[in-house]
Every structure is written in structure tokens, then in C-alpha cells.
Amino acid sequence: MAASHQLADLLQELKERSGRSYTALASRTGLSRSSVHRYCQGLTVPASFGVVERIARVCGAGQEDLDRLYSAWARADAEASAQAEAEAEAEAEAEREAEAEREDVAAGPVVGTGHRRPWPVTWFTRRRRQRLSLRLRTLLITLLLATSAAASAVTLDGLPGQGPDGGTDGTTAGKAGDSPEGQQVDGPYWALAPKPLDPEFFGITMNTDTGLMPGFDVGGVRLWESETRWAQVEPERGKFDWEILERSVRGAERARLPIVFVFGGTPGWAAPGGPKTPYPDDSRAAPPDDLADWDHFVEKVATRYRSRIGAYELWDSVGATSHYDGDMSTLAEMVRRAARIIERADPDAKVACPSFGKLWEPEGRALLAKFVRTGAYEFCDAAALKLHPRRADGPPEEIIELAARAEDVFREHNEGQRVWNTGPGAEIDDGAKLSARRANDYAVRFYLVGLYVRKSNVDRMYFYAWGSRNIPLVVQPVGGRPTEAGRRIGRLHGWLADTRITSCGKGRGVGLPDGVFECVFRRGQDGESDSVGQGPWLAIRWTQHGRAGDRLGEEAALVRRMDGGSERVRPGERVEYGETPVLVEYRA
């Protein structure tokens, strides 16, 4: 029996056992009725196991059912891939024969006059012409889309292009007259009905084992490089040392900060042949030799910290062999197993797929694409990505370009994912340092850029890192006071408390001087002042480099500055925008 039929029989058995119709299954799984029918009849093999699992869970499948389904799906998927490869080879062979025939047609047989007579049109040449016609149509559509994208890059604010001074700043202002023959469109980079920010948007990665928390306002903490790696929590198989992790969790609970726990750092006993990580413990960059060890550890953590840890990230810095040296299929299987275990142990906890780094490099994006193709994102609430400037001391606005490149990878594979930016990857440690002024500005703009790239589905930003002195941008050393950069992060968090974001844009597209970025917010919670033009609103504005002056519009009332100062203003008053963001408050 074909593997696809075995998979279909298992699904059909579950369907009949549940007593649900195809329509009911479609409604509860979010799939179309025809798709569910095709899967249960063996007419189509789902592209990812996540689809199979959704159907099975609605039918009340147990763990043994899921294991049998996964084995059947894996065989069916391999069978479908082999068939696709065979068809592709047959198609290629047909193309080679058609090319030879085309050359013969061009020559034709010689007739008595010395002229060449064309060959008669056969079924085979008609088939080839149909394929050629399809390719031409596809090429035409591709060219039209490319032309549309190029026009958007000229007319829409914030897409990659030339900065106002001729240098690349990761965005373009959409200047009138840039493309005299193209359509000129003014407007923000993105706009939507006012939406509240994720309460955990202002995240920060902890670099301490003390349990101390930031001395300025943030929205959540991420535990990595906090001496809570797998090798440290389970130094011997079955023997756990919870002291450091418990201290960190209790510290976050006292500060009322939601937690993301990052899995990673396989113990040496679980992968004795794996390469060591850069950390001083016995952690390895390889996956465990026996995935049952992974299952056991994930279950222990998720069960112990049920309702205390709100989210789990399933590895850090994939793309850097110093952190993960395994293949993508194994990593995908680890994600599938962990997600199922966490769901059973703590159904309310969120799961973020492993953090992928090295995304500035083609090989890094190719690795991400390979992981996307495994279907593992079906099991995750978010995609963790390492979105950062090209260099450790680069301007945060470079993240805009990188976020768009990562988004393209997901789009190419028809995958839509919420993104959590977990800061720089392991490959960016270049020893750079920032001056005090640039550190103050960059710390705040890291989060503002995160708002700007909401268009690329970025929901959370985790600044790297809290507690360390040996990084380019220090916000607070362990045991010390917050730096001015840290205090300004807290001030920005305060500015945006109880606001809902509505748009971000840049330059002339939003009625500002070239090079000025802007994000706009409304005061009040959901349901309050929803109509345009009602309720107070505010705008945060800044530049990547240089200064630009402008006159304030109607209803401008107050300007707040990052140093804590503020001043009353009037409409028409001139204000200077620069690399230090400012907030302008407007009346209703």
C-alpha cells in the first residue's frame, strides 16, 4: 500500500471515531473542507505534519495516534518528494528532446527547390508550446511584480534606498519627483487602526545569574547567558540543579516581569561527541544523541514552571556553529517534540521557534529557508530572529532592511510568522564600542525601529543585554545603577504606557523633512477615542543622522525630550529633530 494511502486510512479512522463531518473538521482546524477531504482520501499529502496534527487533535487523537501519524506522514512525504523528482527529470528529458526537435524544425527537410520545408505540427510540439506559453506568462507576471516593487521602493517611505544625503540609511523618503514617470504616493510606511502594543514588546536579555532585575522599566526578560543553559540545569542525566534558574524566575516574579526561557547548550553527557560551545561549562553545540533526553528536560522545565514562565524559545543563534552544529531536520523534530510537550504541561505558554542569526549573509537566509521548509513553524507561536545592524556599533535603522529580507524568506515559502527580535547573533561580536551620546540614542532607537518594522510582523524586541559591561552598549552593570541609556529606555517605556500605535513613516510621505522618522500613537485603551480626529495623540520623531527643522502642525501642545525635559509649544513653532528622539503631544 502506498504511504499516502496509509496516512489517509489513519486520518479517516480518526475522523470516523470522532463522529465529525468534513465540514466540522474544516471549521475547527481552519482548513477548507476540500483540503480535509483530500487528505483523508489520500489524494494529497499535507506539506507539513502540523496540518496532520491539527486534524488529528480535533478528532481527539492521543500520543500513540500522533506518533503513528507522524511515521506515516514522513513516509508519504518522502514518497511524494521522490515522485516529484521523477516527474521533474521526465520534464527535463522532454525539454531536451523538444530542443532537439526545435533545431530540426529550424532546418527542415530539403525539397526539390532547395528550400527547407517545416516539420508538421505534432502533439509533442503543441505540448511544448503550451509549456513555453505558461513560462512566458509566469515571466510576465514576475516582471510586473518586480516593476511594482521597484515603484514602491521609490514612492513609499522606509523601504531600502538612498538616504537624504546620498548615503545608504536603509530607507528612502519617497521624494516627489524621484520618478517623474511613476505614480507619486504620499503616506506612511504602514498604517492601521490604533492597536495596543504587546505588553512584552520592551524586552531585554538577562546576562546575570544573580536574580537581580533592571532598575528601569521594561516589559519582559529573556533568560539566556544567565547560567541557565541545559548543561547547567541538568549537569548529569536525571540530576537537576534548579538554584540559578529558580533565583532568576523569582527575581522576575518580584519585578512582575514576564519571562522567556531559552533552551540550548546540550550537556556533554547527552552529546559527548559534539563540539563544545564558547561557554565555560560542558555544553555542546550539537543536538543530543538521543532525543528522549531532550524530551525529558523540556518536560521537567515546563512542568516545574507551569504558569510562571510564559514563553519558551527552542534554541539560540542557529546559524552560528558555535551554538548549533546539527542539521535542520533534527532541529525541526526537536521543535515538534518540545511544542507538544509544552502544550501538555502548560497550555497557556507560548513557543518561539529557534533564533536564527547570520541573516545579513545569503547562507544565513538559506539556512532559515531550509528550516521553513521543514514545516516546523506550524508548532510555534513566533519566529525568533537575530535582527541587528551590520556591525555592533551600526545604526539601529539598518534593522529595517534586515527585517524586510527575513520577511521575504517567509513569503517565498507562503509562511506568515510573528517575529520576536532576540538581538544580535553570536557572529556580531566585533569588539566595537559606542560613545556615550550614541549609546543613549541607539538604545532608544532600537525599540523605535522595532515599532517601525511592525509591517514585517515584528511583535517583540529583546535588547542585548542587561548586566554585562563587555558589550558595545551598556544599560546597567550588575550591582550598579542604570546608565543614561538604560534610563532612556525606561523613559520611552513610560511615554508609551497606555497608548495604541497607529502608523510609522518617514520624510515627505508623512509631511516631514527628508530623513525624519515618525511613529504615531493614540492615548487610551481599546474602545476609547477610536475615531480618527478624536482623543489626544502623540508622535515620536528622530533622524538616523543629522538634523532637520520643521514647523509644528495644528494642536501641537508639548514637546518631551529624552533627558527628561519638556516644554510647552504652539502650532507653527519651529522644532529641530535629530538623532535623539523627541515626543510631540497634540490635543484632541
TrEMBL record:
GO terms for molecular function: DNA binding; hydrolase activity, hydrolyzing O-glycosyl compounds. Residues 10-66 form the HTH cro/C1-type domain. This is Helix-turn-helix domain-containing protein. InterPro entries: Cro/C1-type_HTH (IPR001387), GH (IPR017853), Glycosyl_Hydrolase_39 (IPR051923), Lambda_DNA-bd_dom_sf (IPR010982). Residues 93-105 have a biased composition (Basic and acidic residues). Residues 160-169 have a biased composition (Gly residues). Residues 81-106, 155-188 are annotated as: Disordered. CDD domains: HTH_XRE (cd00093). It comes from Streptomyces muensis. Transmembrane segments: none annotated. SUPFAM superfamilies: (Trans)glycosidases, lambda repressor-like DNA-binding domains. It comes from the Bacteria.
